[in-house]
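In this section we walk through a basic example: taking a raw amino acid sequence and producing a predicted 3D structure, encoded as discrete structure tokens. The instruction is simple. Fold the sequence below.
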Amino acid sequence: MSVETRLASARRVPAWVLVALAVQIAVPLAVTVGDPIPSRFGFHMYTDLNPVEFDLYDASGAELEPDRVAVARLRPEIDWTGPLPEYLCDRFPEAAEVRVRDGEGERSLTCRP
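The resulting token sequence is shown next.
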């Protein structure tokens, strides 16, 4: 086998690699063009989702300033109004009330003493 033949076969990319690459480009592009923003599997999947916000209040009604690092980087596509208030009540024992808001709704919870 000559050197040129070996180089030519080494440069040839397997068909499955080309197909996989085409799918990875085509699917997000098709979803981006065809669906409203944001769209699942699109390039802008999380761009229009509202961030999760929460407030903590003590027994006197004053707003607490918790360590927000404890719950940082919450995924915006998940409905956090269900599990997050209980977690915050447990995580911050000085809180008497918790309010959690996301793009879909709001939930308040009175923490047990």
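Looking at the output, two observations stand out. DSSP finds three helices and four strands in the chain. Residues 106 and 113 are 22 Å apart (CA to CA). In the next section we compare this with other chains.
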